[in-house]
Protein backbone atom coordinates (compact mmCIF):
# COMPACT_ATOMS: atom_id res chain seq x y z
CA UNK A 1 0.00 0.00 0.00
CA UNK A 2 2.77 2.56 0.70
CA UNK A 3 3.98 2.22 -2.89
CA UNK A 4 0.52 2.73 -4.38
CA UNK A 5 0.05 5.75 -2.11
CA UNK A 6 3.45 7.42 -2.55
CA UNK A 7 3.72 6.80 -6.29
CA UNK A 8 0.29 8.31 -6.88
CA UNK A 9 -1.46 5.15 -8.00
CA UNK A 10 -4.43 5.64 -5.70
CA UNK A 11 -4.82 9.24 -6.86
CA UNK A 12 -4.49 8.15 -10.47
CA UNK A 13 -7.22 5.56 -9.97
CA UNK A 14 -9.52 8.17 -8.46
CA UNK A 15 -9.80 6.58 -5.03
CA UNK A 16 -9.06 8.25 -1.69
CA UNK A 17 -7.10 6.00 0.66
CA UNK A 18 -5.85 6.63 4.18
CA UNK A 19 -3.21 4.08 5.13
CA UNK A 20 -3.44 3.11 8.81
CA UNK A 21 -0.45 1.09 10.13
CA UNK A 22 -0.91 -1.88 12.47
CA UNK A 23 1.82 -3.95 14.18
CA UNK A 24 0.42 -7.29 12.97
CA UNK A 25 -2.07 -8.70 10.50
CA UNK A 26 -4.16 -9.94 13.41
CA UNK A 27 -4.46 -6.38 14.75
CA UNK A 28 -5.47 -5.10 11.32
CA UNK A 29 -8.15 -7.78 11.03
CA UNK A 30 -9.51 -6.86 14.46
CA UNK A 31 -9.83 -3.26 13.25
CA UNK A 32 -11.65 -4.47 10.15
CA UNK A 33 -14.09 -6.57 12.17
CA UNK A 34 -14.68 -3.61 14.48
CA UNK A 35 -15.45 -1.28 11.58
CA UNK A 36 -12.41 0.97 12.10
CA UNK A 37 -11.16 0.32 8.54
CA UNK A 38 -12.74 -0.73 5.25
CA UNK A 39 -9.88 -2.95 4.05
CA UNK A 40 -7.18 -4.82 5.95
CA UNK A 41 -4.04 -6.65 4.92
CA UNK A 42 -3.47 -9.92 6.78
CA UNK A 43 -1.51 -13.14 6.51
CA UNK A 44 -3.03 -16.57 6.03
CA UNK A 45 -2.73 -17.69 9.66
CA UNK A 46 -4.66 -14.82 11.29
CA UNK A 47 -7.09 -14.71 8.35
CA UNK A 48 -7.99 -18.39 8.68
CA UNK A 49 -8.79 -17.87 12.37
CA UNK A 50 -10.59 -14.55 11.91
CA UNK A 51 -12.94 -16.04 9.32
CA UNK A 52 -14.12 -18.56 11.90
CA UNK A 53 -15.05 -15.79 14.32
CA UNK A 54 -16.61 -13.43 11.78
CA UNK A 55 -18.43 -14.93 8.82
CA UNK A 56 -18.87 -11.51 7.19
CA UNK A 57 -15.18 -11.22 6.26
CA UNK A 58 -14.34 -11.48 2.58
CA UNK A 59 -10.99 -11.98 0.84
CA UNK A 60 -10.74 -9.75 -2.23
CA UNK A 61 -7.10 -10.33 -3.26
CA UNK A 62 -3.88 -12.13 -2.42
CA UNK A 63 -1.21 -9.47 -2.73
CA UNK A 64 2.05 -11.35 -2.24
CA UNK A 65 3.64 -14.68 -1.44
CA UNK A 66 6.66 -15.27 0.79
CA UNK A 67 8.46 -18.59 1.24
CA UNK A 68 11.28 -17.19 3.36
CA UNK A 69 10.00 -18.16 6.81
CA UNK A 70 12.98 -19.31 8.90
CA UNK A 71 14.59 -19.32 12.31
CA UNK A 72 17.34 -16.84 13.12
CA UNK A 73 19.78 -18.05 15.76
CA UNK A 74 22.97 -16.75 17.32
CA UNK A 75 25.84 -18.71 15.81
CA UNK A 76 27.99 -18.17 18.90
CA UNK A 77 25.34 -20.02 20.94
CA UNK A 78 26.33 -23.23 19.16
CA UNK A 79 23.37 -23.43 16.80
CA UNK A 80 24.06 -24.82 13.34
CA UNK A 81 20.93 -26.82 12.53
CA UNK A 82 17.29 -27.12 13.54
CA UNK A 83 18.27 -30.18 15.61
CA UNK A 84 20.43 -27.85 17.72
CA UNK A 85 17.30 -25.96 18.79
CA UNK A 86 16.39 -28.73 21.26
CA UNK A 87 15.79 -27.19 24.67
CA UNK A 88 16.29 -23.64 23.42
CA UNK A 89 13.84 -20.85 24.20
CA UNK A 90 12.49 -19.48 20.92
CA UNK A 91 10.95 -16.00 20.76
CA UNK A 92 7.92 -15.90 18.46
CA UNK A 93 4.66 -13.95 18.09
CA UNK A 94 2.17 -16.69 19.02
CA UNK A 95 -0.80 -17.09 16.70
CA UNK A 96 1.12 -15.64 13.77
CA UNK A 97 2.57 -17.02 10.55
CA UNK A 98 5.90 -17.32 12.38
CA UNK A 99 4.25 -19.51 15.03
CA UNK A 100 2.94 -21.70 12.22
CA UNK A 101 6.24 -22.23 10.44
CA UNK A 102 8.15 -22.63 13.72
CA UNK A 103 5.94 -25.53 14.81
CA UNK A 104 6.00 -27.07 11.33
CA UNK A 105 9.78 -26.96 11.01
CA UNK A 106 10.34 -28.30 14.52
CA UNK A 107 7.84 -31.11 13.93
CA UNK A 108 9.58 -32.01 10.68
CA UNK A 109 12.83 -32.29 12.65
CA UNK A 110 11.24 -34.78 15.05
CA UNK A 111 10.46 -32.52 18.00
CA UNK A 112 7.52 -33.65 20.18
CA UNK A 113 4.51 -31.33 20.35
CA UNK A 114 4.90 -30.91 24.12
CA UNK A 115 8.54 -29.88 23.72
CA UNK A 116 7.68 -27.40 20.98
CA UNK A 117 4.98 -25.72 23.04
CA UNK A 118 7.29 -25.33 26.03
CA UNK A 119 10.08 -23.81 23.93
CA UNK A 120 8.06 -21.09 22.18
CA UNK A 121 8.01 -17.82 24.13
CA UNK A 122 5.42 -15.17 23.27
CA UNK A 123 7.26 -12.08 22.03
CA UNK A 124 5.83 -9.14 20.10
CA UNK A 125 7.23 -8.65 16.58
CA UNK A 126 8.85 -5.34 17.47
CA UNK A 127 10.63 -6.93 20.45
CA UNK A 128 12.13 -9.82 18.48
CA UNK A 129 15.35 -8.14 17.24
CA UNK A 130 16.31 -6.86 20.70
CA UNK A 131 15.40 -10.19 22.33
CA UNK A 132 18.08 -12.03 20.39
CA UNK A 133 20.56 -9.14 20.33
CA UNK A 134 20.39 -8.84 24.13
CA UNK A 135 20.83 -12.62 24.62
CA UNK A 136 17.36 -13.00 26.13
CA UNK A 137 16.93 -15.93 23.74
CA UNK A 138 19.22 -17.81 21.37
CA UNK A 139 16.63 -18.21 18.60
CA UNK A 140 13.75 -16.25 17.09
CA UNK A 141 11.04 -17.00 14.56
CA UNK A 142 9.40 -13.99 12.96
CA UNK A 143 8.22 -12.58 9.64
CA UNK A 144 9.66 -9.70 7.65
CA UNK A 145 10.88 -7.03 8.17
CA UNK A 146 11.61 -7.95 11.80
CA UNK A 147 13.48 -11.03 10.57
CA UNK A 148 15.91 -8.85 8.61
CA UNK A 149 16.26 -6.50 11.59
CA UNK A 150 17.13 -9.45 13.85
CA UNK A 151 19.86 -10.61 11.46
CA UNK A 152 21.20 -7.07 11.21
CA UNK A 153 21.32 -6.71 15.01
CA UNK A 154 23.60 -9.76 15.27
CA UNK A 155 26.32 -8.20 13.09
CA UNK A 156 27.40 -11.42 11.41
CA UNK A 157 26.79 -13.70 14.39
CA UNK A 158 23.66 -15.24 12.87
CA UNK A 159 22.62 -18.51 11.30
CA UNK A 160 19.33 -18.86 9.41
CA UNK A 161 17.55 -22.21 9.46
CA UNK A 162 14.67 -23.29 7.25
CA UNK A 163 12.72 -26.53 7.22
CA UNK A 164 11.50 -28.47 4.20
CA UNK A 165 9.03 -28.15 2.64
CA UNK A 166 9.06 -24.39 2.93
CA UNK A 167 6.12 -22.41 4.25
CA UNK A 168 4.48 -20.31 1.53
CA UNK A 169 2.75 -17.37 3.20
CA UNK A 170 -0.16 -15.53 1.60
CA UNK A 171 -0.67 -11.84 2.36
CA UNK A 172 -4.28 -10.98 1.59
CA UNK A 173 -6.55 -7.97 1.30
CA UNK A 174 -9.83 -8.39 3.13
CA UNK A 175 -13.02 -6.41 3.55
CA UNK A 176 -16.46 -7.14 4.98
CA UNK A 177 -19.81 -7.84 3.36
CA UNK A 178 -21.09 -4.32 3.93
CA UNK A 179 -18.12 -2.60 2.30
CA UNK A 180 -18.21 -5.12 -0.53
CA UNK A 181 -21.85 -4.25 -1.20
CA UNK A 182 -21.63 -0.47 -0.84
CA UNK A 183 -18.17 0.35 -2.24
CA UNK A 184 -17.76 -1.99 -5.21
CA UNK A 185 -16.25 0.61 -7.53
CA UNK A 186 -13.90 1.97 -4.88
CA UNK A 187 -12.64 -1.53 -4.06
CA UNK A 188 -11.91 -2.26 -7.71
CA UNK A 189 -10.04 1.03 -8.08
CA UNK A 190 -8.12 0.29 -4.89
CA UNK A 191 -7.09 -3.16 -6.09
CA UNK A 192 -6.16 -1.81 -9.50
CA UNK A 193 -3.72 0.57 -7.83
CA UNK A 194 -2.34 -2.21 -5.64
CA UNK A 195 -1.83 -4.41 -8.71
CA UNK A 196 -0.06 -1.56 -10.50
CA UNK A 197 2.45 -1.45 -7.63
CA UNK A 198 3.42 -5.10 -8.22
CA UNK A 199 5.88 -4.17 -10.98
CA UNK A 200 7.94 -1.55 -9.11
CA UNK A 201 8.02 -3.75 -6.01
CA UNK A 202 9.13 -6.83 -7.96
CA UNK A 203 11.91 -4.85 -9.64
CA UNK A 204 12.91 -3.12 -6.37
CA UNK A 205 12.72 0.20 -8.20
CA UNK A 206 14.21 3.00 -6.06
CA UNK A 207 10.94 4.96 -5.61
CA UNK A 208 9.19 1.78 -4.45
CA UNK A 209 12.01 0.88 -2.07
CA UNK A 210 11.98 4.40 -0.65
CA UNK A 211 8.20 4.30 -0.14
CA UNK A 212 8.38 1.03 1.80
CA UNK A 213 11.41 2.19 3.80
CA UNK A 214 9.61 5.36 4.85
CA UNK A 215 6.47 3.48 5.84
CA UNK A 216 8.41 0.96 7.90
CA UNK A 217 10.98 3.45 9.18
CA UNK A 218 13.82 1.19 8.08
CA UNK A 219 17.03 1.56 6.12
CA UNK A 220 16.61 1.14 2.35
CA UNK A 221 19.43 -1.42 2.34
CA UNK A 222 17.40 -3.72 4.60
CA UNK A 223 14.19 -3.14 2.67
CA UNK A 224 15.79 -4.01 -0.67
CA UNK A 225 16.84 -7.39 0.71
CA UNK A 226 13.39 -7.99 2.17
CA UNK A 227 11.58 -7.18 -1.08
CA UNK A 228 13.73 -9.70 -2.99
CA UNK A 229 12.17 -12.50 -0.93
CA UNK A 230 8.59 -11.75 -1.99
CA UNK A 231 6.56 -12.55 -5.08
CA UNK A 232 4.34 -9.55 -5.74
CA UNK A 233 1.44 -10.68 -7.90
CA UNK A 234 -2.00 -9.46 -6.91
CA UNK A 235 -4.40 -12.28 -7.74
CA UNK A 236 -6.49 -15.07 -6.23
CA UNK A 237 -4.78 -18.41 -6.82
CA UNK A 238 -6.45 -21.83 -6.70
CA UNK A 239 -4.26 -22.95 -3.78
CA UNK A 240 -5.59 -20.32 -1.39
CA UNK A 241 -8.67 -22.13 0.05
CA UNK A 242 -6.73 -25.32 0.85
CA UNK A 243 -3.88 -23.36 2.43
CA UNK A 244 -6.32 -21.45 4.65
CA UNK A 245 -7.96 -24.71 5.73
CA UNK A 246 -4.52 -26.10 6.59
CA UNK A 247 -3.76 -23.08 8.80
CA UNK A 248 -7.15 -23.45 10.53
CA UNK A 249 -6.60 -27.16 11.25
CA UNK A 250 -3.16 -26.31 12.65
CA UNK A 251 -4.65 -23.69 14.99
CA UNK A 252 -7.37 -26.12 16.05
CA UNK A 253 -4.82 -28.83 16.86
CA UNK A 254 -3.00 -26.37 19.12
CA UNK A 255 -6.21 -25.35 20.87
CA UNK A 256 -6.08 -21.80 19.54
CA UNK A 257 -9.57 -22.24 18.11
CA UNK A 258 -12.28 -24.45 19.66
CA UNK A 259 -12.05 -28.18 19.01
CA UNK A 260 -15.71 -28.25 17.98
CA UNK A 261 -15.41 -25.33 15.55
CA UNK A 262 -16.37 -26.29 12.01
CA UNK A 263 -13.64 -25.39 9.54
CA UNK A 264 -15.41 -23.63 6.66
CA UNK A 265 -15.00 -24.09 2.95
CA UNK A 266 -12.81 -21.04 2.47
CA UNK A 267 -13.94 -20.73 -1.12
CA UNK A 268 -17.13 -19.24 0.31
CA UNK A 269 -15.34 -16.19 1.72
CA UNK A 270 -13.32 -15.39 -1.40
CA UNK A 271 -14.97 -12.59 -3.38
CA UNK A 272 -13.22 -12.22 -6.75
CA UNK A 273 -15.51 -9.62 -8.35
CA UNK A 274 -13.61 -6.55 -7.12
CA UNK A 275 -10.29 -7.86 -8.43
CA UNK A 276 -11.88 -8.91 -11.71
CA UNK A 277 -13.15 -5.35 -12.09
CA UNK A 278 -9.75 -3.79 -11.34
CA UNK A 279 -8.17 -1.87 -14.19
Automatic annotation (TrEMBL):
<dbReference type="Pfam" id="PF09084">
    <property type="entry name" value="NMT1"/>
</dbReference>
<dbReference type="InterPro" id="IPR015168">
    <property type="entry name" value="SsuA/THI5"/>
</dbReference>
<protein>
    <recommendedName>
        <fullName>SsuA/THI5-like domain-containing protein</fullName>
    </recommendedName>
</protein>
<feature type="domain" description="SsuA/THI5-like">
    <location>
        <begin position="3"/>
        <end position="197"/>
    </location>
</feature>
